[in-house]
Design brief:
By secondary structure, the chain is of the alpha+beta class. Helix content is 43%, strand content 16%.
Amino acid sequence: MEISLIGSQIQKFRKQRDLTQRELGEAVGVSTQAVSQWENGGAPDVALLPAIADRLGVTVDALFGREGGQVQDMSDTFIQWLRSLPEKNRLSRIARLLWEAAIYGVSDPLFDAPWIAYPEKGEMETPGLFGHGKALLRTMVGTDSGYLLGVGSEDYSYFGVFPEPEEGYERYFLTDDEYRTLFAALAMPGAMEALRFFCRNRPSLYAAAAIAPRTGAPLAETEQALEALTQAHLLVKEQITLPDGPLDTYALSDFSGVVPLLTFARWAWQSQNGMNLVGNLMRERCFEKGAAGDEEN
């Protein structure tokens, strides 16, 4: 066995993957010192070679410097696989991959068991347990490198993956006043009903008089709610000219933004009474760096 060759190959592929010796060691169940010894003339146990090759994204042959062992480009492999699927199934399959990554990749080993199956339904009845109604089968994983949150099931899946930026999350939040503007707008009488009206009807411009009957609020309150939703950037306003004068009309500013907002709002709302499919949060630090009253880590 070419001891020095295997060590140099491990070092080469490790650096190509931007892995530290500690990260590679943790992935295959050895110490940082063991990896260092491999790269300085030693050799890993033969039984570890498949795990090392898998983590480095190469074949075992590549560790011996043989042809055909180039680093696998997982991005190209993924895109090729995705293109082989019917277009209508692609997003659901991506969601399933994220669910499997949470279950088998970053969750507690307790969940790495054959009885874990992809749920058929994303909701379950909860009479007598968390109150009557349906609870989401929530998937949630938090580590010091970020979060993966969502619901995975055959009938409806959605996920958000939030790798933590080097400068922390706070830079990408709205200001406190902007959040107050958003949530105050949603809390106004008729506001949520108006937002649902836009989601349920084909994209178009609508006047307050056409929306008010669907909100259950008086026309004046509906107009105030529409203005507030516009200030919160959930709606856009356009004035059109009619024979008897100008008329204010409204439309959704971004339908694709409203759906995640309303969907994850339910996810967060059920934080205490929802069913956690993965509840292992391995994160130890706060999500805001340098927050008032906190010590820097």
